[in-house]
Amino acid sequence: MTKKVLESELFIMLLFAGAVLTMPLWLAPIGAGYPDLMQKFAIFGLFAIGYNVLFGLTGYLSFGHAAFLGVGSYAAVWSFKLLSMNVLPAIFFSMIFSGIFAYMIGFVSLRRSGIYFSILTLAFAQMSYNLAYSVLTPITNGETGLQLTLNDPRILDAASSNGGALPSPTLFGLKMSGFEGFYFCAVLLIIGFFIALKISRSPFGLVLKGIKSNQTRMKFTGFNTRPYLITAFVISGMYAGLAGSLMAVTDPLAGAERMQWTASGEVVLMTILGGVGTLVGPVLGAGIIKYFENIFSAFNDRSLHEVLAFLPDGMENIVVTLVRPFVGEGWHLTLGVLFMLVIIFLPGGIMQGIDRIFGKSKKKKAAEAAAATARMGEEQHG
Amino acid sequence: MAEAEENTVLHIADIHKSFGGLHALSDVDLQVKEGTTHAIIGPNGAGKSTLLNVVIGRLIPDTGAVVFDGEVITGKTPHEINQAGVARVFQTPEIFSDLTVFDNVIVPILSKRDGSYKFNPMAKLSAQKEAHDEAMKLIADFGLKADDPSGSLSRGDKRRLELAMCLSQHPRLLLLDEPTAGMSRHDTNSTIELLKKIKEGGMTKVIIEHDMHVVFSLADRISVLAEGRIIADGTPEEVKANPVVQEAYLGG
Ligand SMILES: Nc1ncnc2c1ncn2[C@@H]1O[C@H](COP(=O)(O)OP(=O)(O)OP(=O)(O)O)[C@@H](O)[C@H]1O
Ligand SMILES: [Mg+2]
């Protein structure tokens, strides 16, 4: 009975929404309670949730999802330039364009599976990145990036002049900066999470899990797996487009670097760090990586000395020397170490750790371990 | 090519298949009658599994055709052939080893119900009442447990699970590739009983089996395959009495 309640949609959604909406409260003590950073958590959380619909459910590892992020940003900025500073049309067009783009890339890439699929997606994303710098400059404005200008037509808000200053994105007049901006992204994160929850518990979601587990069996069970995979790919591409448009909402500027392979790799790391195929894992992974990026990278020698001032002088210097490589520009090192520790000790990501702490039933764990061992055995036998 | 006789559900017509220089199947012509159990026996490497692969669309024959229910299915995709009513139990169980027993069984039920593609991401799996009940009943009939992770089942139970998955689709034609291999005597016998029960239900079956006890308990007709050719074909009595078969397979 209690298990049923704990696993019910309503309970999960209440818990998730509660945690997201109270972020300013519980993130403040660890120095992350300010809107800009929390907004990043929400945006990358959406990116990772969508990525997980593809990678987590079907097992297809895409290395090119940053392309959809970029398309989403460009579409949003164009919507700001041509139509209106209202964020809703921007989001709408971002999702449409990234969806179409994902359909085209998915249509070709999904002819292959495994590593060949990954390479194809990577190739497409890098191609988009390079094109954005070269041939597509009229659309992307090349290296400068696509920006708002005073001469933009903005046909829908023609009436409102902004006294010569550049306008900023709004939701029917509500400015999208500070806490308003965060709460707007937070609401979208909650909706995005809800949809992902529904998908993973639907017959459609089960088919995707079946494809991940044994695609051969799926085909001989009567499923045409290709359109299922394309659909999942498009959905995850649209999530990425949404995340890209929210980046443009936060800061109405779109540059090609958003499409670079490092950005594609980042979302893979987020998903794996949090827990592939789990619901909350990708959001956690996104939060942790963005937290490290912003908090750890902000430390320098002075702030370290301040934090460690309570230690005796000699000791303080030693500790600062030891810690220094891991913070500031070295934050990637911390992230790398954390990532390795998680992969080695918790291959199921942070969610696996949480499951362990809060004790999934022993029986289930043992069974899963047995299944994993059996799989490894099978793989060895070819 | 032999003319299709009456009541033929599956006609494997003059199939030839080779892998490089190896003639895995040569001039194989076989007719399976509605509602019968047709056994295919033969030594290892005779081409039995290859023959089933040709039927389910995993392999395309070099020449010849497979006619199911009056329609040529050669060249169709595996999912189309399954949707037409052909299900197969594989020699090494093909199940969803990351999913629970329940999920394994409900997936084929959904395929039968919804066809080869359906986009219903907002529907609740747990609200699919009929499919749910059907899966639970089948799982109980097979003595399996719905919540068990299927990856950790014993080999015999994996086979039974795969059989349950195939039966959940109520196929017109069920292909069984050594369904009792690796099972205990007790499980083998209960599988025989189960297959007999389905036979009363009128499902047509093709069964590949090395265990002669299983073959002679179930088969209405037996074809013997050796080195890719059918060397004998007939009722169990005829095949048992055939001197060529005794030499080639039954071991005298
Ligand atoms: N995909 C393939 N590629 C190359 N050779 C194959 C392939 N499939 C089967 N063979 C070969 O064809 C021959 C027939 O194999 P098949 O699996 O049909 O035998 P079988 O009668 O099912 O044997 P067993 O009783 O051992 O299961 C074997 O020599 C096998 O090595
Ligand atoms: Mg075989």
In brief:
The complex is a heterodimer of chains A (382) and B (252). Chain A is an all-alpha fold and 382 residues long.
Task: Give a verbal description of the structure.
The complex is a heterodimer of chains A (382) and B (252). Chain A is mainly alpha-helical and 382 residues long. The radius of gyration of chain A is 22 Å and the shape is globular. Chain B is an alpha/beta fold and 252 residues long. Helices cover 36% and strands 25% of the residues of chain B. Chain B has nine helices and ten strands. In chain B, the strands form two sheets. Chain B has a six-stranded mixed beta sheet with strand order 6-7-8-3-9-10, sandwiched between helices. In chain B, strands 2-1-4-5 form a four-stranded antiparallel beta sheet, with helices on one face. In chain B, α3 packs across α4 and α3 packs parallel to α5. The longest helix of chain B is centred in the C-terminal third of the chain and has 16 residues. Chain B is globular, with a radius of gyration of 18 Å. The model of chain B has no long low-confidence stretch (mean pLDDT 92). The interface between A and B is large, with 37 and 43 residues. Bound molecules: adenosine-5'-triphosphate and magnesium ion (MG). The site of adenosine-5'-triphosphate (ATP) has 12 residues of chain B, from β2 and α1. The site of magnesium ion has 4 residues of chain B, from α1.
